[in-house]
Design goal:
Two copies of one chain form a homodimer. Chain A has a two-stranded antiparallel sheet. In chain A, helix 1 packs across helix 4 and helix 1 crosses helix 6. By secondary structure, the first copy, chain A, is mostly helical. Helices cover about 50% and strands about 5% of the residues of chain A. The first copy, chain A, contains six helices and two strands, in the order H-H-H-E-E-H-H-H. Chain A has one domain: Orthogonal Bundle (Arc Repressor Mutant, subunit A), CATH 1.10.10. The model of chain A has no long low-confidence stretch (mean pLDDT about 90). The structure holds a DNA duplex.
DNA sequence: CAATATTACCATGGATTTAATAGGAATACA
DNA sequence: TGTATTCCTATTAAATCCATGGTAATATTG
């Protein structure tokens, strides 16, 4: 019942891009160093976002990545559903359910459907902007103290 | 972000035992057939419950397993935490957190802690008895129609 | 305009975990 | 003593995570 490194690294990468929005294209090298994540592994995570209107890309010197939309238009749930494939805790409770032999008779199915709902509802309630704001709040509090 | 087969099979096994409480010890053969789960794999799942006051065991002919408590005294969350090790979606949000280099500075930590809470709260709100009751309700409705 | 350096992109492989399958030893009842 | 059962220990097959090495595109510089 773990979020994979793919999803966690992808989120940290997108938050990093959001924090440095004003700097234009950001290279993977920069992100990998700042976040202490293998650059080579990040390279494998990025293609997952192809054709999803998440990232903009530029190759060559001064190239890199930037967010395609403003941070308040990404939810954590949306990002994780892309990287993880689905957030459903079991395949039979997914949006596009994989039915098992027991079908709708399964005593556990309602439990899993309920779990799927609380997970997705929670993660869809948080945007990248919320994460930036919370960070900013903490920083402000530290400053006051 | 999946519940492993260990947890899913364990739950179905315990629900099966709850459904047949009145029959005394139930053999793995019976459960495996009824639930269409590999008996050999179930044998490996059971020892996870050693020293947890979940099951009672009897070897030899007429042996098998039975619940150690009444079904309303097991929550789904409790069972899954035993089989899965922890339900925390990331290790840093677990009860006994594995700290990472970023420690409490991590911008994602509050998100994961919140997710951990909604998952555990939901799963702790459901007991084995609830699952039996819901099954009974559905059966009753079918009968009326 | 050509060379070069910088960047994204692509394919493969190894280590570790998960999900089973398999064989047999220990135990207890009849 | 025989047999039904739990218990224990490999072995295998697939997926996941991450590292390595090489290729292609492009902005800058001379």
């Amino acid at each position: 019942m773990k979020i994979s490194t793919k999803g966690r690294y992808a989120l940290r990468m997108l938050v990093d891009l959001a924090e440095h929005q004003q700097n234009g294209f950001i290279s993977l090298n920069e992100i990998a160093k700042r976040q202490d994540i293998s650059k080579k592994y990040l390279e494998q995570i990025i293609p997952i976002f192809n054709n999803t209107d998440v990232l903009r890309t530029s190759r060559g010197p001064q190239g890199g990545y930037m967010l395609a939309k403003s941070p308040d238009r990404y939810t954590v749930g949306e990002i994780l559903r892309i990287t993880e494939g689905s957030l459903a805790p079991v395949d039979c409770a997914a949006q596009d359910p994989v039915e098992c032999a027991r079908g709708t008779e399964c005593v556990m199915l309602p439990v899993w459907q309920g779990l799927n709902k609380v997970i997705n509802d929670y993660l869809d309630s948080i945007t990248l902007q919320d994460i930036l704001d919370r960070e900013q709040d903490r920083y402000a509090n530290d400053y006051i103290i």
